[in-house]
Amino acid sequence: MTTPKFKKFNIEAYRPGKSKIKKLRKIVKLSANESALGMSPKAIKIISDKKLNLERYPDGKSEILRKEISKKYKCNFDKIICGAGSDEVIQMICQLFLKPKDEVVVPQYSFLMYRIYAKIVGAKVLFAKEIKFKVSISEILKKVNKKTKIVFLANPNNPTGTYLTKKELLELRKKLNKNVLLVVDDAYAEYMKNRDYKPGLDLFKNKNNVFVLRTFSKIFGLASLRVGWGYGSKKIIDALNVIKAPFNVSHLAQLAAIESLKDQNFIDRSVKHNLYFAKRIKIYLEKFNIFSNSISANFLLLDFEKCKFTAKFVYEQLNRKGIIVRSTAEGYHIKNKLRLTIGSKNENLAFMSAVKKILN
Ligand code: PMP
């Protein structure tokens, strides 16, 4: 039987942080930057309601959710679009802006979905060098030319954990050709307590050539429900709504996201927990000559250069003990490092105790 011909893509498919280990039932998953404290109790309550009308299509415009977002973040309701994760919003932005042969600039070690979605629509992806695993404005500007349509940036960046300061981010927008769309991905913004940091949303609310991405998958703990949002000029949002799938965000996801936004107590607890354990784990690992980025989001990029064992060896040994962290060798092509998500108290203690056993 013949298979009808389809397009072939020269793309390395996204490989998510592993969530299973053969033969092991109980695992500690610290590989996908998910919430350490699970979901907000308010969100759990609403989606446990037996009277949900799931036989009906959801609100395709996510109206109540967008209202709640605009209230919480003091931004314009008409300039918000919701997606099945911010992933879908990245995909829509690529579909809207890019034709074959257009160019996109991404930092060398940036989140992988920017390059994947850009390539799917035929754009050429240029990589801007980073300096000590930090985004470099001058290297980005070097790659920009007349064909450049979008510069993508996660701030803080996954997987490096480094970030551009408020001043640097403003400088980038100022120096970048005004016809280029700057996409600032604020996925981890809620975790950030660094004084010199400002979320893209706060800096560029009224800029027509900046598009901001946000997600409910991280601090809000709704990764499985798939809900995120984008914020940009009314013109861009209207155009995105034309190409958007009609019912892209499920009713359950919308309800849970609305309740999560209202639960400031859960957000505060998550931030506090994250800072406490990020600090504690960072200092603990230094005893074993494993160093990491200064604390930013809910993960650390661990560097094994000075350690007596390689990242690969420690990764495999952790696996044998049922602990999964993220290897950065594949996809990101970062050698001898591992990305560790800050987990729950028990998960973090299990990780620290396993490290001690492996390294002693
Ligand atoms: N942006 C960044 C920087 C991320 O790290 C992730 C998730 N790993 C995403 C976007 C995608 O998140 P979502 O679950 O909303 O699609």
Estimate the helix proportion, in percent: 25-40%
> How are the strands ordered across the major sheet?
2-10-9-8-7-3-4
Order of helices and strands: EHHEHEHEEEHEHEHEEHHHEEHEEH
Count of the separate structural domains? 2
The CATH topology label of the largest domain is Aspartate Aminotransferase, domain 2
The biggest sheet, with number of strands, parallel, antiparallel or mixed sense and barrel status, is:
7 strands, mixed
CATH superfamily of the largest domain: Type I PLP-dependent aspartate aminotransferase-like (Major domain)
Provide an overview of this structure.
The protein is of the alpha/beta class and 360 residues long. The chain folds into two domains: 28-39 and 265-359, Aspartate Aminotransferase, domain 1, CATH 3.90.1150.10; 41-262, Aspartate Aminotransferase, domain 2 (3-Layer(aba) Sandwich). 36% of the residues lie in helices and 17% in strands. Strand 11 (291-292) and strand 12 (299-303) form a beta hairpin. The model has no long low-confidence stretch (mean pLDDT 96). It binds 4'-deoxy-4'-aminopyridoxal-5'-phosphate (PMP). Residues 33, 85-87, 111, 154, 158, 185, 187, 215, 217, 223, 228 line the site of 4'-deoxy-4'-aminopyridoxal-5'-phosphate.
